[in-house]
Automatic annotation (TrEMBL):
<keyword id="KW-0505">Motor protein</keyword>
<feature type="coiled-coil region">
    <location>
        <begin position="772"/>
        <end position="936"/>
    </location>
</feature>
<dbReference type="InterPro" id="IPR044986">
    <property type="entry name" value="KIF15/KIN-12"/>
</dbReference>
<keyword id="KW-0175">Coiled coil</keyword>
<keyword id="KW-0493">Microtubule</keyword>
<feature type="region of interest" description="Disordered">
    <location>
        <begin position="1"/>
        <end position="58"/>
    </location>
</feature>
<keyword id="KW-0067">ATP-binding</keyword>
<feature type="compositionally biased region" description="Basic and acidic residues">
    <location>
        <begin position="947"/>
        <end position="958"/>
    </location>
</feature>
<dbReference type="GO" id="GO:0005874">
    <property type="term" value="C:microtubule"/>
</dbReference>
<protein>
    <submittedName>
        <fullName>Patched family protein</fullName>
    </submittedName>
</protein>
<feature type="coiled-coil region">
    <location>
        <begin position="986"/>
        <end position="1062"/>
    </location>
</feature>
<keyword id="KW-0547">Nucleotide-binding</keyword>
<dbReference type="GO" id="GO:0005524">
    <property type="term" value="F:ATP binding"/>
</dbReference>
<feature type="region of interest" description="Disordered">
    <location>
        <begin position="947"/>
        <end position="973"/>
    </location>
</feature>
<feature type="compositionally biased region" description="Low complexity">
    <location>
        <begin position="49"/>
        <end position="58"/>
    </location>
</feature>
<feature type="compositionally biased region" description="Polar residues">
    <location>
        <begin position="17"/>
        <end position="26"/>
    </location>
</feature>
Length: 1076
């Protein structure tokens, strides 16, 4: 590599240790950059072997973290691990929560299927710490190396080591962020060093820079590669294989002299960056969209590295080590198995699928498609590797979506069947994402609607989700629920099937009847009592199911009462023992679930559970504590949020003070949510701002539907999905509550709601005061109308009391008449019962007669069948006798003909005997001719065998020529494809040339402007030079003064030395003269 580098300083490489960097407890070691002797295998921990080539003070070959030999020592080295980051195997074995995050990650390590364990303040602190470490300590170094890789002098692996990218601190941060990113959206930005107003440093850009620098160092090895992404990928793949799995390199490898310890650290760094980038992209990070569309060369090299995996697997099969051997789908871990080549193989295709899902266009799409198709064929023939095959299918669907209809959508159907078998969260997200991508095609949607078996929907999406929730695998249930919600929108038959099955309709299958109450209880408990994304998604789904059918009918009374208590506690109407309020989005979705429960016709049950609470008490309970007076209610009506305004309006006008209705409950629930969690105010303000931007509903007296509202939230990308964004779910829940309140309100209140959602302008203080007075007048008039209506209701109540007394008298009279009719009916019933007894005895006698007749009929049937069989046998005998007679007649006629033939034969024999002598002579002559012909046949047979051998050789040569012709034809087809690709490239280059010419013209104009600025800068430079000359003169004067001071100082020092010598002389004299 050119020079020796200290391996002990890899953690920091001369940079100042920052406060965010923990002390690495590692023993330092040194690695040498000289050529290593050839190695024949992996050196395990604790093994010892002779130090080949080791000399006094020289550098030895270090394999697994050993220290350099001391000068003067040769012979035996001891190899032992020094750090978990020395190679992929050590990292997989030793990477635990104690290494990465101490106690913060311990719960997630025990159960990696519950990412909500990472939603703690300690994990947030850990997240900020490692983001700051990456962006403050390593981002600038990586950015400098990445910029240098675009120039003529590319960075080397020594530069990577000097920048500290292979240090334990750096790789600890990357590995920790890969774990935390499974729950948190990492959008941390660091301000630019030059301009504090520009924020450009992100974790995503840092990871991409690291990958770019690693690939650039691979291209700038001992033997520089061409500017070809495929060649760079091959070179890096050899480093990855050497550093991660195999100790030996192929002959002629350009990195044969690279130290394996360095290769191991680079391979681990690369694997951690690929894993982190995969996790970041799987969480749909919006802030990385610009980075993903910037660098096409980097993504082309990544796809080429994946193609190198494919090439090794196809060429060598099971001997390559890249062919999967397990038939089972792997489980999730906190840290992926980076030491397994198959797992690394699958991780590359996972990253490629994530890049394709974000719209990345690869420069080598043709090569990638060819590799994916070849790998599909190889894995389909094998008996193992289903997990890898699923990743390849995901990439195939996104690359070759136009070819799916030719096979009748076989791959999407297979992916759909594997949804219940996936044990990896990332893999299940990818599978459901690919299915959602396929469902964008209307042809596939029609195919699903025609061929989907509705009986399988309930066990796949309900029973399996319940099973995962009971096993505490919440993250696996989330993609299934997202797919179920998507099917609700695209396949209208799905929602009624699920709702009717969970309700317990008579037409459902019997095997689901036992699991039905458990499934409903599980879904409702998750929607009310759980935390995290699964609670939001479940609340959205259960709201739609409740609006379709009341599934709570399948619960027994005790469980139903428990559910109602939890629901009232969730919206703040009752004190409950459930979890504390986690976030505003989850609380608002519970309010929407409460609204759906009310819409399902369960209002009387809610009122029954709130026995001692009236509508007036409920409004005062949900409003702020200071809102007891009328003035405070007027103030809330003007300055409060929309929920508080509506409840304050009802309290001011006395709207139904003694009764509960759907509008009152929903409005009070939304207002109670604001009181429980102040962050709900932000959701209400965002909802009001979003609805205010929907101009088409301004001036109309109607509210937008849920579809129009979701389309407004999605912008130009279609409908927003509430199951993939908690923000969208919260806004949709608020809209559902407001719409329900709007539908249950009177026209005056509907006008108020519409004016609050569609304001015509922001009034100033005077207009606001006028508006307050106007509202007061309207409320006073409304109160008078309410009092009048109450008086009318009292009069109607008195009339109803009179009607009630009259109805009671009529009821007594009807009761007497009914008693008399009942007595008569009893007497008639006794007579009918006697007649029924006699009819019963007659029916029994008839049954006995019918049984006797059935016995006789059976006996007659048996006799008839016996006679029929004897008749058929006699007929067969008669037919056989007739055929025998006809056969005898034919034989007699034949014998007569034979006698006539015998007479004719005797006459012919007499003539034959005369001719026999003549024929004997002719036979002798013919025997002689036959002997001659036989000799000729022997010679011809030998020639025939010779010709057959020549013909066989000719056929073999023709077959070989045919095979060569087929190979040439395949080569011609391949060259034709390359020609077509080159023609497309030429067309693209022509287009790029035209764009470049336009850019040249623009740059010329900019150059003219820059020249003008340059002339101005030259004038400024002259002014600065004049100032520099003046400053130089001043500096010279200061230097002259400094020189004089230095001379004075030297003279003073000489005097001091002279005085010291004098004092020492005096002291010695004094010592000599001192008496003893």
């Amino acid at each position: 590599m050119g020079r020796e580098t200290s391996y002990a300083n890899q953690d920091h490489r001369g940079y100042t240790r920052l406060s965010t960097q923990p002390t690495a407890n590692e023993n330092p070691g040194v690695y040498g950059g000289h050529a290593d002797p050839p190695r024949n295998g992996v050196i395990k921990d604790g093994e010892a072997r002779p130090a080949a080539g080791a000399a006094s003070g020289g550098a030895a070959n270090y394999v697994n973290g050993v220290s350099a030999p001391k000068p003067g020592f040769t012979g035996v080295e001891t190899y032992r691990k020094q750090s978990p980051f020395d190679d992929c195997g050590a990292f997989v074995r030793e990477a635990t929560s104690e290494l990465l995050g101490k106690v913060e990650l311990r719960k997630f390590e025990h159960n990696p299927y519950r990412s909500r364990y990472l939603n703690t303040p300690e994990c947030e602190v850990l997240l900020r710490k490692h983001c700051q470490r990456l962006l403050n300590s390593y981002y600038d170094r990586t950015e400098a190396l990445s910029t240098a890789s675009c120039g003529t002098k590319r960075p080397t692996f020594e530069d990577i080591v000097e920048a500290g990218l292979t240090s334990s601190d750096h790789m600890t941060s990357i590995a920790t962020l890969a774990v935390l990113a499974r729950f948190h959206r990492i959008s941390y930005l660091a301000t630019h060093m030059g301009d504090p107003g520009i924020s450009v440093a992100t974790v995503h850009s840092h990871v991409l820079n690291v990958l770019r620098v690693i690939f650039s160092a691979s291209a700038a090895g001992p033997e520089k590669a061409n500017s070809n992404g495929v060649e760079t990928a091959r070179r890096f793949f050899s480093i990855l294989s050497s550093g991660a799995w195999y100790a030996t390199l192929e002959q002629g490898d350009p990195f044969a002299s690279l130290d394996r310890r360095l290769a191991q650290r680079v391979a681990l760094l690369y694997a951690l960056c690929v894993n982190l980038l995969d996790v970041l992209l799987s969480n749909s990070c919006e802030d990385a969209e610009g980075l993903l569309s910037s660098d096409g060369t980097l993504y082309a090299i990544l796809s080429s590295v994946a193609c190198c995996f494919v090439e090794k697997l196809i060429c060598h099969g099971h001997q390559s080590g890249y062919m999967p051997t397990s038939k089972e789908l792997p489980d999730d871990r906190m840290v992926p198995n980076l030491a397994d080549p198959v797992a690394m193989f699958a991780m590359h295709f996972s990253l490629l699928n994530a890049l394709l899902a974000h719209g990345v266009k690869f420069n080598n799409t043709y090569l990638l498609e060819k590799g994916v198709k070849a790998l599909c064929l190889a894995l389909e023939k094998a008996d193992s590797g289903r997990s890898l095959l699923l990743w390849v299918y995901c990439a195939y669907v996104r690359l070759c979506s136009g070819e799916l209809a030719k096979s009748r959508h076989a791959i999407p159907r297979l992916l759909f069947s594997y949804m219940t078998r996936c044990n990896s969260v990332l893999q299940l997200r990818a599978v459901t994402g690919v299915l959602a991508f396929c469902l964008r095609d209307q042809a596939f949607v029609d195919y699903v609607a025609d061929h989907m078996n509705t009986e399988n929907i309930y066990p796949i999406f309900v029973l399996h989700a319940c099973n995962l929730i009971h096993k505490q695998r919440d993250d696996l249930a989330v993609p299934l629920l997202q797919m179920l919600h998507l099917l609700f929108n695209l396949c209208p038959n799905t929602l009624p099937v699920i709702a009717n099955t969970m309700t317990g309709t008579p037409g459902m299958l019997k095997e689901y009847s036992k699991s039905l109450p458990n499934a409903v209880e599980t879904f409702l408990n998750v929607a009310l009592l759980s935390l995290g994304p699964i609670q939001v998604i479940m609340a959205v789904i259960m709201r739609r199911i409740l609006l379709t059918s009341d599934v709570t009918k399948s619960l027994d009374r005790e469980k139903f009462d428990t559910f109602v208590s939890h629901l009232l506690a969730a919206v703040g109407f009752k004190k409950g023992s459930g979890p504390a309020v986690a976030d505003a989005d989850g609380l608002v979705t519970k309010v929407a679930l409460f609204e759906a429960f009310v819409q399902a016709g369960r209002l009387p049950d809610l009122v029954q559970h709130m026995k001692n609470v009236t509508a007036k008490d409920l409004r005062l309970m949900t409003l702020p504590s200071a809102a007891a007076s009328r003035e405070s209610l007027h103030k809330l009506l003007c300055v409060g949020d929309i929920a508080t305004k509506l409840v304050a309006y009802d309290a001011l006008v006395g709207y139904k003070p003694d009764g509960m209705d759907a509008g009152t409950l929903v409005a009070c629930a939304l207002c109670s949510a604001v009181k429980m969690c102040p962050d709900v105010l932000g959701i209400l303000r965002e909802y009001a701002a979003t609805y205010a931007r929907m101009r088409e509903y301004h001036g109309t007296r109607s509210l937008a539907g849920e579809g129009k509202f979701l389309r407004a939230l999605g912008g130009g990308s279609g409908l927003a999905d509430p199951t993939r964004s908690a923000r969208v779910a919260g806004l949709l829940s608020v809209h559902a509550a407001i719409a329900s309140l709007y539908m249950a309100s009177e026209p005056c209140k509907q006008n108020l709601i519409h004016s609050l959602l569609c304001p015509e302008g922001a009034p100033d203080e005077r207009l606001r005061q006028e508006l307050v007075e106007k509202y007061k007048a309207q409320l006073a008039a409304q109160r008078k109308e309410v009092l009048k209506s109450q008086s009318r209701l009292d009069a109607q109540a008195n009339e109803l009391q009179q009607y009630k007394a009259a109805a009671a008298k009529q009821l007594e009279q009807l009761t007497k008449e009914y008693s008399e009719q009942a007595e008569r009916a009893r007497a008639e019933l006794v007579g009918v019962q006697a007649q029924l007894g006699s009819a019963t005895s007659q029916a029994q006698q008839l049954d006995r007669d019918c049984a006797r007749l059935r016995t006789q009929v059976g006996e007659l049937d048996q006799a008839l069948r016996k006679l029929s069989a004897e008749n058929e046998q006699a007929a067969d005998n008669l037919r056989a006798a007739a055929s025998h007679r006809e056969r005898l007649k034919a034989e007699v006629a034949g014998l007569k003909g034979q006698l006539e033939q015998r007479d004719r034969t005797l006459e012919s024999l007499r003539t034959v005997e005369s001719d026999n002598g003549r024929l004997t002579k002719e036979v002798d002559e013919l025997n002689a001719q036959v002997e001659r012909v036989y000799r000729m046949l022997i010679s011809l047979m030998s020639k025939h065998r010779q010709l057959e051998g020549d013909l066989t050789r000719s056929r073999e040569e023709a077959a070989q020529s045919g095979r060569q012709l087929q190979e040439r034809q395949a080569q011609v087809d391949e060259l034709s494809g390359r020609c077509r690709a080159q023609e497309g490239t030429i067309a693209a280059l022509r287009t790029a040339k035209e764009g470049a010419e336009e850019d040249v013209q623009r740059l010329r104009r900019e150059l003219q402007g820059l020249e003008a600025r340059l002339s101005k800068s030259n004038d400024d430079l002259k002014l600065l030079q004049s100032r520099h000359s003046a400053t130089s003169q001043t500096l010279q004067a200061c230097e002259e003064q400094n020189r004089r001071l230095t001379e004075q100082l030297q003279s003073c020092e000489a005097q001091l030395r002279q005085r010291g010598e004098q004092l020492s002389t005096i002291y010695s004299t004094f010592q000599d003269k001192r008496p003893y």
